[in-house]
Write a structure and sequence with these properties.
- This protein is α/β, with parallel strands linked by helices.
- The protein folds into two domains: 243 residues, von Willebrand factor, type A domain (Rossmann fold, 3-Layer(aba) Sandwich); 33 residues, no CATH class.
- The chain is built from ten helices and twelve strands.
- The strands form four sheets. Strands 7-6-3-8-9-12 form a six-stranded mixed β-sheet, with helices on both faces. It has a two-stranded antiparallel sheet with strand order 1-2. A two-stranded antiparallel ribbon has the order 4-5.
- The protein is elongated.
- The protein starts with a helix and ends with a helix.
- This is DUF58 domain-containing protein.
- It holds the Pfam family DUF58.
- InterPro entries: DUF58, vWFA_dom_sf.
Length: 293
């Protein structure tokens, strides 16, 4: 159910998100995902006004008294999704564009975050503009996020740095930032954004999307390659260029990974052919790590 090709047949984004999360959580212990704490350290007596979801019914069965499980840490946080909507995100492999995969990924992670009681927010970087949807925890706000996500149509280049420090530090609260991008940048503008965000001490996960055809370079004969953001073209002999291409690609990915990990930014490269469960698992690992530090 988490296969991207299968998921593209679901046109309703909320339904797709629910399908992905339900599939991912099959066999998963839901109690570790929900509530005001991933772990709890003690019980206390029930007080009027307490959330009834955190009553421990086993304790009630043993003692005939109501107890609330208390969390060691308050885990409700703000999760902000940053989406690269530059023209290169239109890159298609086997009928799945990077932007389509990005939308499925953001929708699923936002559903999961909302399930955990987290506030969600959305920023879209596109052709000199920056769309912002503020952070709120309620289900109605989640529907707004889905609506704006559905409207995203990639074009132009990635937004140049503009007052990022003021934009992402205005509430003074640390957030979990989930950045979905293909890491295509003309002048280091994506690194500039991430440098600023890391300096603000936010927890950051970067999901680097690539088409499987980009990873394999499985073209034959002479091929014309076009830069989707500048329109420039180049002809290459795919057979002779493949070995050099793969070496250069490995060097490129190693540089990106080293640059981000050096700033304590979690990094995961995903092929658009990969099931979404790997991304959801990485999200939960990083979320929990940020909460217990």
């Amino acid at each position: 159910m988490l296969n991207p090709k299968t998921l593209t047949t679901i046109k309703d984004l909320p339904l797709l998100a629910k399908t992905v999360v339900d599939g991912f959580m099959n066999g998963f212990n839901r109690s570790t995902l929900k509530g005001p704490g991933l772990e709890f350290s003690q019980y206390r007596s029930y007080q009027p006004g307490d959330d009834l979801r955190w009553l421990d019914w086993r304790m009630f069965a043993r003692s005939d008294r109501y107890y609330i499980r208390e969390s060691e840490t308050e885990t409700s946080i703000s999760v902000r999704f940053l989406v690269d909507a530059s023209a290169s995100m239109n890159h298609d492999d086997d009928g799945i564009a990077k932007i389509a995969y990005a939308k499925m990924l953001v929708a699923s992670l936002a559903w999961l975050a909302n399930l955990q009681g987290d506030a969600v927010a959305l920023n879209v970087f596109q052709d000199g503009k920056l769309f912002s949807l503020p952070s709120k925890p309620d289900p109605q706000h989640l529907q707004r996020l889905f609506y704006h996500l559905e409207q995203v149509k990639p074009g132009g280049q990635f937004t140049q740095p503009a007052h990022y420090k003021e934009l992402f530090a205005d509430n003074g609260r640390k957030e979990l930032l989930v950045f979905i991008t293909d890491m295509y940048q003309a002048n280091g503008e994506i690194f500039s954004l991430l440098n600023t965000l890391a300096a603000l001490r936010h927890e950051i996960i970067v999901f680097h999307l690539m088409g499987q055809n980009e990873l394999d370079f499985n073209f034959k004969g002479y091929t014309t390659l076009e830069d989707m953001e500048t329109g420039e073209t180049i002809q290459v002999n795919a057979q002779t260029a493949k070995t050099v291409y793969k070496e250069k690609l490995k060097q490129h990915l190693d540089v990106i990974k080293a640059e981000l990990l050096g700033k304590r930014i979690a990094y995961r490269m995903l092929s658009t052919s990969q099931p979404l469960d790997e991304a959801l698992r990485e999200f939960l690992v990083q979320r929990k790590k940020g909460l217990v530090q």
